[in-house]
């Protein structure tokens, strides 16, 4: 089940916190609870992506993006993800979650997120997400979002590794084969 209570608590904290710069890094603290684990008593890989939601949504709230989306009747969606799992997260481990917008292109906004084990300081996982605002007519170009959001915001150059991922995704066939 989706952790709506956790999302509500993280969102409520974000709404009360001071506004942050659009390209600043958002930090939150989490605990790996019993309902987050898989049969091997570690953080479930699917739940990891759900925990990343608990960083992206408050990031959008604190930066003021949610206000723009609500005003224009737009929603948010994830259009692709690449994730690395490097350290096991066990039940009751305390985690630090970092989320930041690293840039955008003509179609998508790219967000980097990482989970760090508080006791060892090791990075447990890191993800890059391709996200989009969507309206009645489909994907809203990031340039339109940024004009509405913060017209003075300078588009950062995407890192080489992100551009390589985008190029790799462009090579991937869609729809996939079913046989």
From TrEMBL:
Protein's UniProt name: Acyl-CoA thioesterase FadM
Organism this protein belongs to: Allosediminivita pacifica
């Amino acid at each position: 089940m989706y952790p709506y209570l956790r999302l509500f608590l993280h969102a409520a904290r974000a709404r009360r916190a001071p506004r942050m710069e659009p390209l600043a890094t958002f930090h939150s603290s989490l605990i790996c609870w019993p309902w987050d684990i898989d049969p091997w008593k570690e953080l479930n890989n699917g739940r990891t992506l759900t925990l990343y939601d608990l960083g992206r949504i408050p990031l959008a709230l604190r930066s003021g993006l949610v206000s723009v989306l609500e005003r224009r009747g737009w929603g948010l969606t994830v259009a692709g993800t690449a994730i690395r799992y490097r350290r096991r997260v066990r039940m009751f481990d305390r985690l630090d979650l970092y989320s930041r917008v690293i840039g955008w292109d003509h179609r998508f906004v790219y967000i980097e997120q990482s989970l760090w084990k508080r006791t060892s300081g090791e990075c447990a996982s890191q993800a890059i997400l391709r996200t989009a605002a969507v309206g009645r007519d489909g994907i809203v170009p990031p340039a339109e979002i940024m004009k509405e959001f913060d017209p003075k915001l300078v588009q950062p150059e995407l890192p080489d590794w992100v551009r390589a991922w985008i190029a790799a995704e462009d090579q991937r066939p869609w729809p996939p084969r079913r046989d």
